Amino acid sequence: MFSGSPTLAAINYALSHWAGLIRFLSDGRIDLDNNAVERSMRPIALQRKNALFAGHDLGAENWAAIASLIECCKLGGINPNAYLADVLSRIAGKRDGEPLTDLLPANWVCSHSDGDMFEYSTNAIAA
């Protein structure tokens, strides 16, 4: 093969990603691509322009944090409205310095196994 040929480039690419390819082939739970994650992030990318007009750096940081929490809820099959309503009311009751890790979406699921917490409408998905 000639140096710089497309075939040689494809072979080198496959060899440089060999460990990931083997892991994908040995574990059926691993997706070949990350399209699900990219689709879930598309609304954030589309609204990135809106964050430019947040008015202040702190406002943009707060917007980014809330948007991340909503997307994590969607990925976990959690109703974002139920999650935010519960978490915001629980944050108000916490004291300064008290850990908030139990309020992250993955940890919140463990303590809220109610059926209505995991069902959300298409309106919640589009938000």
Question: What is the alpha-carbon Rg in Å?
Answer: 21 Å
Poorly predicted runs: 118-127
Number of helices: 8
Counting helices, strands and paired strands, the structural category is mainly alpha
> Kindly state the mean pLDDT as a whole number?
79
Give the beta-strand count: 0
End-to-end Cα distance? 51 Å
Name the assembly state: single chain
Largest sheet, in brief, is: none
Number of domains: 2
Describe the structure.
The chain has 127 residues and is mostly helical. The chain contains eight helices and no strands. Helix 3 packs antiparallel against helix 5.
Describe this structure in a few short sentences.
With 127 residues, this protein is mostly helical.
Topology:
Layout: H1 6-16, H2 18-26, H3 35-46, H4 48-51, H5 57-76, H6 80-92, H7 105-111, H8 122-126
Helix pairs in contact: 3-5
Highlighted features:
single chain; 127 residues; mainly alpha; 2 domains
